Amino acid sequence: MNGSNDNNAPTTDAPQPVIVPRAEHPISRSSISPSALKVLYRLKDAGFQAFLVGGAVRDLLLGRSPKDFDIATNAHPEQVRQLFRNCRLIGRRFHLAHVRFGQEIIEVATFRAAHTLVDDDNSVDEDSRRVLDTHGRILRDNLYGTIEEDVWRRDFTANALYYNIADFSIWDYTNGVPDANARVLKLIGDPATRYREDPVRMLRAVRFAAKLDFRIDDATAAPLTKLAGMLHSVPAARLFDEVNKLFLAGCALRSFELLREHGLLAHLFPDLAAALEADSTGLGERLVRLGLQGTDERVLADKSVTPSFLFAVLLWPVVQRQAKQHLQVDDSEIGVLQDAFDSVAARAQQRVAVPKRFSMSAREVVAMQPRFDNRSGRRSLRVLEHPRFRAAYDFLLLRAAAGEVEQSVADWWTEIQTMPTEARVEVVEQVGAAPRPAGVKRRRRRSRKAKPSTGV
Ligand code: ATP
Ligand code: MG
């Protein structure tokens, strides 16, 4: 393959795409990043095929603004590098080109080789191009191919659309345009096979359904529960990345519901799934749902979200349960919570590897909770100076909203923060006084009855 290839037409002996001309689709160049357009045009002018691909085409088609703009081309990575000064090749097995424009990086991928048939022993494909393990997972996929090959290795039909810079048409090999318009998420090929190749696609199905508000096609949904156990074979670090995408991108609550519905939660966070199942009070369930809903609201409002708070939420019902079982009359509640957190987190890490910096601050947020019970004496105010106070306090609010602690306790901490130091000291030194700061108007106590928490 080289730059002199025909730029406008698909090669003839391969599957033909439906070509949707510019006049028949809504994607306008004005909604494509100018940097991506530059890359597309330069590739085209050098005689290569150049397409906008993946999530960007799908999102533009749906009238959403894309997270990033990925490009696919028949130029080899070295050829891409020669065209751009600001370009770096990344990846060990399959090289991708990253073209940098200030903060923005445009990823340029050379078309990948096709799926080839799996041998009977399920280990090496017919011409050794793709190596699979005994579960049918792809271990190596490292040859460059044509667009007709590239398309079949993509996951969902709506993710397999190519916007051609040569004439602004969309090339659709998989019925992706009608599927996207009908808001249906459909795997390309045989769903069970595609999940076996890469079990993370099960999580991607849930993520896209939640994020795009798509229905998962019946055939695509059918194997999920049965194959959910394959998540065990996915490296825990990759699952951490996927969990962040599921829960920190504004559709956490819906993702959580779908993970449960399709039996995936039990393989991602087995202890959480079991704790929620066993909890007859419904408190843990309410806390998790409100925590995820709160995360979604923060994302929507463009506020920061962190994996630490998320993991504190997801581990809390399990930590609570374990701490309750172990707490003796004389134990320090903080110590018991820390021990419970350590053992619960260690088990959870086997599935989802949370980097230390996040799990450490989740641990602090959890272990600080009993300190909010103490509201007399100057020492009780020290918690306000703790570097993790803000997160721990937010977590307290969440527990109160879920009905796990008295709302008046949360209100006390809300109000004390608004007071000058001397007034705070006065409040906590009124020995035996009611926990309401003096001079602060009594707020109407919010009903502890949980508001409908499903959000859907
Ligand atoms: P987002 O908007 O969340 O980034 P996206 O569709 O761009 O969504 P990416 O994870 O960025 O998703 O991947 C880009 C494209 O690469 C996808 O649209 C899909 O075509 C393909 N792809 C990514 N991961 C896989 C996978 N595990 N299996 C098959 N194809 C994949
Ligand atoms: Mg993307």
Could you describe the 3D structure shown?
The chain has 456 residues and is an alpha+beta fold. Among the domains are: 1-111 and 146-179, Beta Polymerase, domain 2, CATH 3.30.460.10; 268-429, Orthogonal Bundle (cca-adding enzyme, domain 2), CATH 1.10.3090.10. It has helices at 34-45, 55-61, 77-83, 147-150, 176-181, 191-197, 200-212, 218-221, 224-227, 236-247, 252-261, 265-268, 270-278, 283-300, 307-326, 333-349, 356-367, 389-401, 407-417, 421-429; strands at residues 18-20, 50-53, 70-73, 87-90, 96-101, 104-110, 130-132, 138-141, 161-164, 169-172, 184-185, 215-216. The strands form 3 sheets. The protein has an 8-stranded mixed β-sheet. Strand 7 and strand 8 form a beta hairpin. Helix 7 (200-212) runs parallel beside helix 10, helix 7 packs across helix 11 and helix 15 (307-326) crosses helix 16. The longest helix is centred in the C-terminal third of the chain and has 20 residues, at 307-326. It is elongated and about 85 Å long. It binds adenosine-5'-triphosphate and magnesium ion (MG).
